[in-house]
What we know:
The protein is of the alpha/beta class. It has two domains: about 10-140, Response regulator (Rossmann fold); about 160-495, pyruvate-formate lyase- activating enzyme (Alpha-Beta Horseshoe), CATH 3.80.30.20. The chain has helices at about 10-25, 40-50, 65-75, 85-90, 95-100, 110-125, 125-130, 195, 205-215, 235-245, 260-265, 265-275, 290-295, 300-315, 330-340, 360, 390-405, 410-415, 415-425, 430-435, 435-440, 445-450, 490-500, and strands spanning about 5-10, 50-55, 80-85, 105-110, 135-140, 140, 170, 175-180, 180-185, 200-205, 220-225, 250-255, 275-285, 315-325, 345-350. A six-stranded parallel beta sheet has the order 8-11-12-13-14-15. A five-stranded mixed beta sheet has the order 2-3-4-5-6, with helices on both faces. Strands 1-7 form a two-stranded antiparallel ribbon. Helix 17 crosses helix 22 (about 445-450). The mean pLDDT is about 90. Cobalamin (B12) binds near residues 13, 59, 60, 87 and 193.
Amino acid sequence: xxxxxxxxxxxxxxxxxxxxxxxxxxxxxxxxxxVESHAAYFRTLERFRPDAIGFSCNYLANVPEIxxxxxxxxxxxxxxxxxxxxxxxxxxxxxxxEHGRGAVDGVLRGEGEAGVGPLLExxxxxxxxxxxxxxxxxxxxxxxxxxxVRSLDELRPARSILRHRRKYFLGVLDPCASIEFTRGCPxxxxxxxxxxxYGRGYRTIHPERVVEDLESIREPGVFIVDDVAFIQAxxxxxxxxxxxxxxxxxEYYLETRGDVLLRNVEVFRFWKRxxxxxxxxxxxxxxxxxLRKYRKRVSLGKNFxxxxxxxxxxxxxxxxxxxxxxxxxxxxxxxxxxxxxxxxIVNISVNTPYPxxxxxxxxxxxxxxxxxRLYDIQHAVLPTRLPLAEFYEELVKTQQVLNGKHMGWxxxxxxxxxxxxxxxxxxxxxVRMLWKFNSVYDPxxxxxxxxxxxxxxxxxxxxxxxxxxxxxxFVLPRSxxxxxxxxxxxxxFVEETRTPA
Length: 501
Ligand code: B12
Ligand code: SF4
């Protein structure tokens, strides 16, 4: 949606689920609707005539599109089993079934690789068998809790079933593939569902397996999708050493926390030599109060130190800050000034409570809209202090700082050689990106989005509570072995940062 200006990423989750279905003996087609049209989807439906269709729903904003497609699919192919999986779907399973009014047969919660084989087997066996599959939720109730993948080392994405691979890019990394080194996060930020989805588990993939996967990637750019890269220095080193031994040369982008960067700076320095180009730091706030609110468990001083550190490594840094709907003009102006003075790419998102996060249960402000499409962190779904139109004007004006400094001619000048190189290889994503900003980030369009008719009204959050038991939020049940990938020193480091100052 809004992020399409800067990137379009390989659907790694779907490739992994596709690979699991293939391993279970099925013939699989993968369609990425970021790239392909609905017409292409219906053509595939007609020609391939699948027995089952699984939609990936990682993002709330995609719910209406998935439901529309499911309903039309039911009309055209009543006998096909339609199911939905993915991050967001796992938190709103019953809601999806209700909206589907019979068009969605089931929601498969949790890691798709674990559940898809048994589900496809059960579909063949009949409805009674489906409701016994781990992780399934159907109109008749929920099956046993979702099971976690036994070993991530056994997984390999089915990259070859994805068409149009040249369409995937991330800024100047054009084309760009995605890869996973670890899964989960040991922190517990209140606005985030990475830790609740994986039951606070954190697992690593064996360095040799990572490098095997990397060797199969043809794209020169690689996005490391881990929630927090290189929490554990040793793991990062071992992957890096294996890459160096094989002589693999790629350009990398990763996301991490400021305190992890400071603690493991030597790993990041090593990765700079291997080709690390971009790093995303979720600072979230430039004041202590903001950091406390989001329970980032990191101080402002540490975050700024991390910024300095990233600069000294010569890695390009993108930062995220969360704008609160409660901000007034002055607050926006302070942040805008900071963005102007900061050489890094500063992205501003809007504080949005999501199902599956703690904030969803504790936020006492009432959501102002039940339109899933607005839950994309670019729209305000909580009450704004400023009139909504003014809030969007201020927001876009602040986001414009990024556009002025890092897009358009300002960038083309300094990246001319790179841009020409990409164009010479037929890659146009990066160059086209440079002028897209204004057509997408527009206060009038943002405001108009609130006036659209809502066909599927999102379930409201429960009445606000002071606290919520984390276990109630988990998709994958917490397992005693969930942290087995973390060494003792890292465990202590995480625990220390988790102790309130
Ligand atoms: C890449 C990414 C993006 C890309 C998306 C590109 C793309 N093509 O998918 C971009 C940058 C656009 C993006 C944007 C946003 N993202 Co994002 N993103 C990620 C990220 C880092 C990696 C996704 C990934 O590839 N994971 C690895 C694969 C293997 O896992 P997976 O996709 O979840 O798939 C597994 C399961 O979900 C499931 N599954 C998935 N599909 C299907 C389908 C079927 C049929 C089945 C059965 C199972 C299944 O099985 C898969 C294998 O186990 C994740 C964090 C993470 N580590 O997962 C966050 C994450 C998914 N994003 C998140 C969020 C909040 C957002 C944003 C709102 C803002 C933000 N914080 O970045 C925006 C909103 C976008 C929108 N329009 O609404 C949240 C969760 C979203 C939620 N529903 O609550 C996550 C978990 C990050 C976080 N820590 O909060 N994101
Ligand atoms: S550190 Fe990042 S991934 Fe982990 S819980 Fe916090 S925001 Fe989510």
